[in-house]
Design a protein that fits this description.
The complex is a heterodimer of chains A (510) and B (217).
Chain A lengths: L2 H11 L1 H39 L2 E6 L7 E5 L5 E6 L6 H8 L5 E15 L19 H10 L11 E6 L6 H4 L3 E6 L9 E5 H7 L6 E6 L2 H7 L6 E11 L1 E3 L11 E4 L1 H7 L1 H5 L9 E6 L5 H10 L1 H4 L4 E6 L1 H42 L1 H9 L4 H56 L18 E3 L3 H7 L7 H28 L2 H8 L1
Parallel strand pairs in A: 5-11, 7-9
Antiparallel strand pairs in A: 1-12, 1-13, 2-3, 4-5, 4-8, 4-12, 6-9, 8-9, 10-14
Helix pairs in contact in A: 1-14, 2-12, 2-14, 2-16, 12-14, 12-16, 13-17, 14-15, 14-16
Chain B lengths: L3 E9 L5 E10 L4 E5 L6 H8 L7 E6 L2 E2 H4 L1 H7 L1 E4 L11 H5 L9 H6 L16 H14 L4 E5 L7 H18 L2 E5 L3 H6 L2 E6 L2 E5 L7
Parallel strand pairs in B: 3-8, 3-9, 6-7, 7-8
Antiparallel strand pairs in B: 1-2, 1-4, 4-5, 9-10
The chains are: A alpha+beta (510), B alpha/beta (217).
Bound molecules: adenosine-5'-triphosphate and magnesium ion.
Chain lengths: 510, 217
């Protein structure tokens, strides 16, 4: 009788034994495969979080440097306000820093201004601000009234110009606060192209490819200098959506009314720029992005030591990776938990399997003796036992592939998504309550940027679209590891038995 | 010429006391031998040496004139001898039919089983659902169908009643005559021993032939 026939008979006739062994291998294999798949997903999630949250470091003027402020006082010497006169980030600064850093993904300088937008270059046919945003700018009304009420229409709508050097790397987009819906991002230095919000587009019936006109918002300036305003035609190249609602009141501060453009576009119509030969500070922030957010801290250290940056403490540099850190911790915990779980399963599983297999082999001493007495070789008997465990392992692993697909699809995916969602929700809530820090005694500094209160969960949505799935490589690994383990356990369990002389085996039989 | 021979065989488990002490004997084909002796005298030990389950500490076991250690113990077990043990003879996940055919011999098994009194339905049953005597007969059938010239039986009737014991002895004797096999039986049963052609007694490590009538427990 061949060893395969004997193995077949054993598996078929010792059904209870076969099924218990099958179930044990199945459970171990399912848990092992699920945890491996889960671990893979956690790592994907970590990568996604890094990429989606795009860790960066930020260079801003040092608003805490008191000598950078010019204080305004009234006749009585009472302080009425202050103007920031400190150094502002420039493209030269950004370039000089970028030249010194390895592993940089890119950077974006951003700045802002209030502007006017018209359907026709006539000063009358104004674009409507996005619905829900405040039309009036009280301060501007007062100034215009004082200026002589030249054109009431001009009071109605002001928009925000968001200047950027690389809109794709603008923090609004990289942070997930905004998403490009249609069209494309701005090209570097592209003149006459803008990105507008879907709300603004809807309000004015505009779409990608449409043209409108931009003008300086400072009406009073125009009258003061008695200069004809410039109506500069711009084309919409992209439309973005906003993941949340504006926290600001005035139309030009609201993200819905924000128009992304390059500095060269603004320069075409900005009166302030045209009035002076001096270099105008257009930007207030630079965001630098690293290929790997892990490098951010060391990059910042390097930047702080740069001579072009370090002089007089004019700038601050901060790492913006709170989001990554916020999600990193819980994900790393899951990762660690899964690793421990995996090792436990594997350890306990292997021990249980070895104990069972060696107990079974010991039980089979009689059978081994009978087979030896009819002249079956030890190696042939061992091969029979290996053939049996091979069949059971292969079947159990095959079923385990489906089992773990089920486990990972339900429990695994839910757990992972839950963690990211929870973490991101608490992170966004915390982030939106973090207010800008202002030096005591100074009036509010308007950075020119809009602030968006994110709807909780919107950012995490794209991150949680992670499915825990079982990959071919893991399946192959399961079969390989499963078989090696089973063979190892059987062979090791058999050693004491096969080291006995046949007569000793036979004497142990009775 | 003798088919099997033990030549000056000694055996010790602990290296001090010899269980077998310079034992010599030869066994002819077509003959049935009964080995008697008190418990613990080394009968099973001798049988395992004959069957190549172990090697003597002194002397040699010869099959057809050749030292079985030279031919190889595995080959000796596979091709020269068949065993019948007192109990635990059968593999429990094989039917009686499969058990009897375990040696791989081409000799049809069913006629032998039938002659040993097993029915068609009994040979397809789970072996554990056979009586002790029936199980032993399956083991005997396995030894008989095997293409070996020597059958070694260690208390083959220990688990069956006296009548069955004599019955089994007769079957073994008949097949020895019919097939020309050499059958060596270790037993405590005088009835069985009396069926044998030759009775040997093992005592104090020495094997001595006995007259049938003199055979004692
Ligand atoms: N594995 C062993 N290790 C040490 N001593 C052993 C071993 N097997 C048997 N013996 C001893 O060797 C002697 C002979 O044993 P053996 O089994 O050959 O006796 P036996 O004649 O078959 O006895 P019984 O009639 O009870 O079956 C006994 O004293 C026994 O205790
Ligand atoms: Mg004995």
């Amino acid at each position: 009788m061949s060893l395969f026939r004997r193995a077949f008979l054993y598996l078929m006739r010792k059904r209870v034994k076969t099924i218990t062994l099958f179930l044990i291998v199945f459970v171990i294999a399912t848990l092992a495969l699920s945890s491996v798949a889960f671990k893979g997903a956690v790592q994907t999630a970590q990568l996604n979080v890094r990429e989606a949250l795009g860790g960066c470091f930020v260079i801003q003027p040092n608003y805490n440097k008191s000598t950078s402020w010019e204080v305004h006082s009234d006749e009585n010497g009472e302080m009425t306000g202050a103007t920031f006169r400190g150094a502002m980030p420039s493209e030269e600064l950004a370039d000089s820093i970028a030249a010194q850093l390895d592993g940089l993904l890119g950077f974006n300088l951003s700045g802002g201004d209030a502007i006017r937008a018209f359907n026709a270059p006539d000063g009358y046919d104004l674009l409507h601000v996005a619905s829900g945003t405040s039309l009036m700018d009280a301060e501007l009304i007062v100034e215009t009234i004082a200026d002589g009420l030249e054109n009431l229409n001009d009071l109605y709508a002001t928009f925000g110009a968001h200047l950027c050097t690389n809109s794709a790397l603008d923090y609004y987009f990289t942070s997930g606060e905004m998403t490009l819906l249609e069209g494309r991002h701005l090209n570097e230095g592209e003149t006459g192209a803008v990105l507008i919000s879907d709300e603004l587009a809807k309000q004015n019936g505009l779409t990608v490819g449409d043209t409108f006109y931009l003008r300086d918002s400072n009406r009073y300036l125009i009258s003061e200098h008695i200069k004809e305003p410039v109506y500069f035609p711009v084309t919409i190249v992209g439309i973005f959506s906003i993941n949340g609602t504006s926290a600001y009141q005035y139309s030009y501060e609201c993200a819905e009314n924000m128009m992304f453009m390059t500095a060269s576009t603004l320069e075409k119509f900005s009166m302030g720029y045209q009035e002076t030969d001096e270099e105008i500070d257009l930007f207030h922030t630079i965001h630098f992005y690293a290929n790997d957010p892990e490098d951010l801290e060391s990059m910042v250290e390097k930047v702080k030591a740069l001579p072009s940056f370090g002089k007089d403490g004019d700038f601050t540099v901060t790492v913006q990776n709170e989001a990554i850190l916020a999600v990193k911790g819980p994900l790393e915990n899951i990762d660690r938990l899964v690793t421990i779980l995996f090792l436990l399963i594997l350890g306990i599983g292997i021990i249980i399997l070895c104990l069972i297999l060696s107990a079974r082999i010991k039980e089979r001493i009689r059978e081994t003796g009978i087979l030896l007495s009819v002249g079956v070789k030890k190696s042939n008997i061992l091969l029979q036992y290996l053939a049996e465990i091979t069949v059971v392992t292969l079947l159990a692993c095959t079923v385990a592939v489906f089992g773990s697909m089920f486990v990972t699809k339900t429990a695994g995916t839910m757990l992972l998504q839950g963690t990211i969602t929870d973490t991101m929700e608490s992170y966004t809530q915390q982030a939106s309550s973090d207010d800008y820090e202002i030096p005591e005694g100074w009036t509010t500094v308007d950075s020119g940027d809009s602030q968006i209160v994110k709807e909780s969960g919107t950012l995490s949505q794209e991150l949680t679209e992670i499915t825990v799935s079982v990959h071919t490589g893991e399946i192959v690994l399961l079969y390989t590891a499963g078989l090696l383990l089973a063979w190892g356990a059987v062979t090791i369990s058999s050693i004491p038995l096969f080291r006995l002389k046949p007569r000793e085996i036979l004497s142990k039989m009775s | 010429m003798s088919i099997m021979e033990v030549r000056d065989v000694s055996y010790s488990y602990d290296g001090k006391k010899n269980v077998l002490n310079h034992v010599s004997a030869s066994f002819e084909e077509g003959n049935v031998y009964a080995i008697l002796g008190p418990s613990g005298c080394g009968k099973t030990t001798l049988l395992s040496l004959l069957g190549g389950l172990d090697v003597p500490t002194g002397g040699a076991v010869l099959f057809d004139g050749t030292d079985i250690q030279k031919t190889g113990l595995g080959l000796h077990r596979r091709e020269h001898v068949s065993f019948i043990f007192q109990n635990y003879n059968l593999i429990d996940y094989m039917t009686p039919l499969e058990n009897a055919a375990l040696s791989g011999s081409k000799t049809p098994v069913m006629p032998v089983l039938k002659r040993l009194g097993l029915t068609e339905s009994e040979v397809k049953r789970n072996v554990l659902k056979l009586s002790g005597g029936q199980q032993q007969r399956v083991a005997i059938a396995r030894a008989l169908v095997a293409n070996t010239r020597v059958i070694l039986a260690d208390e083959p009737t220990g688990n069956v009643d006296d009548q069955m014991s004599v019955e089994i002895a007769k079957i073994l004797k008949e097949s020895a005559k019919e097939t020309g096999k050499c059958v060596i039986i270790v037993t405590h049963s005088l009835d069985l021993a009396n069926e044998a052609d030759t009775i040997l007694v093992l005592k104090n490590g020495v094997l001595e032939p006995k007259q049938k009538t003199e055979a004692e427990e």
